[in-house]
């Protein structure tokens, strides 16, 4: 029996190790490649013999990459903040208020989030151009909300359904209105869910490429995915892979740090709706 348990633990350990290796190896290789240049890029080495730190400096020197990072932070943060603010009120109505067509409305919201971006690209382009937001950051915020808002509404509605109705009924007896109930009762309870949903929506907005490529024209208004894609070398056949990897690592590290900082809240948010209280 003990031998069998040891074998099972060993197999589980090997499986976990394989999953960790599979997940982390691409990022490790991106870091290694970002520190190489010239012919060293085509040599397989575990660590660069002469780290080319100049790749990171060149990324910021040859294009307004710092401005692009700031653009991504502003656009992703704004779209997520607006989506969460709207999603909390919408989730309260969908989860707590009974009205005809509520189920159909929820499935419609879910269906909107399933549309591929290219299917709505032309319509969004006409809308943004008509509003005078082309090549402007507010235009990207509006465009990103087409996938961040349905996602946040659907997820927060699921979490809000699990909050005991006794809390809401007690607040109503005390004379609290819907706004007070949402702000003072539901928001503190939805803290982990808001962090989890907001972080996932932020990552989606941070990595978005198609809308950012279509709705921006100047390099000063581009976000980091477009800026990385447009990094070019001396000719179209000589791409500076070291700089491209350096830029990729630069924009990936903040996301990794965010996940590590909010790790406990993310786990709490993901498991909050698993058990009905």
What can be said about the biggest beta sheet?
A: none
CATH class division of the domain at 64-230? Mainly Alpha
SS summary, helix count:
13
Give a count of the beta strands, DSSP E runs of length 2 or more: 0
**Unreliable segments of 5+ consecutive residues:** 273-277
Q: CATH homologous superfamily name of the domain at 64-230?
A: MetI-like
How is this structure best described in words?
The protein has 277 residues and is mostly helical. It has a domain at 64-230: MetI-like fold (Orthogonal Bundle). The chain has 13 helices and no strands. The chain has helices at residues 2-34, 54-62, 65-96, 102-114, 117-130, 137-161, 165-173, 178-189, 191-207, 210-215, 224-229, 241-261, 263-272. Helix 4 (102-114) crosses helix 6 and helix 9 (191-207) packs across helix 13.
SSE arrangement:
Layout: H1 2-34, H2 54-62, H3 65-96, H4 102-114, H5 117-130, H6 137-161, H7 165-173, H8 178-189, H9 191-207, H10 210-215, H11 224-229, H12 241-261, H13 263-272
Concise structural overview:
This protein is mainly alpha-helical and about 280 residues long. About 75% of the residues lie in helices and about 0% in strands.
Which keywords apply here?
277 residues; mainly alpha; MetI-like fold; 13 helices; disordered C terminus
């Amino acid at each position: 029996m003990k031998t069998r348990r040891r074998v099972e633990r060993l197999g589980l350990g090997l499986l976990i190790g394989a999953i960790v290796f599979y997940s982390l190896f691409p990022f490790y290789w991106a870091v290694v490649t970002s520190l190489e240049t010239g012919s060293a890029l085509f040599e397989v080495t575990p660590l660069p013999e002469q780290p080319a730190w100049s790749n990171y400096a060149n990324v910021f020197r040859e294009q307004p990459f710092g401005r692009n990072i700031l653009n991504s932070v502003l656009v992703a943060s704004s779209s997520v903040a607006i989506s969460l603010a709207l999603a909390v009120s919408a989730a309260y109505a969908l989860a707590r208020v009974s009205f005809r067509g509520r189920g159909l409305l929820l499935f419609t919201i879910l269906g909107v989030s399933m549309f591929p971006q290219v299917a709505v690209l032309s319509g969004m382009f006409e809308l943004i151009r008509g509003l005078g937001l082309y090549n402007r950051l507010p235009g990207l915020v509006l465009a990103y909300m087409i996938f961040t808002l349905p996602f946040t509404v659907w997820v927060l509605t699921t979490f809000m359904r699990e909050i005991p109705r006794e809390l809401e009924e007690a607040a109503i007896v005390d004379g609290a209105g819907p706004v007070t109930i949402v702000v003072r009762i539901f928001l503190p309870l939805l803290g982990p869910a808001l962090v989890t949903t907001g972080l996932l929506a932020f990552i989606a907005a941070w990595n978005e490429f198609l809308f950012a490529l279509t709705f921006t024209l100047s390099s000063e208004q581009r976000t980091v995915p477009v800026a990385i894609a447009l990094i070019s070398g001396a000719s179209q056949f000589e791409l500076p892979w070291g700089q491209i990897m350096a830029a990729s690592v630069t924009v990936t590290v903040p996301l990794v740090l965010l996940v590590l900082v909010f790790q406990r809240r993310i786990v709490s948010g993901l498991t909050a709706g698993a058990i009905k209280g």
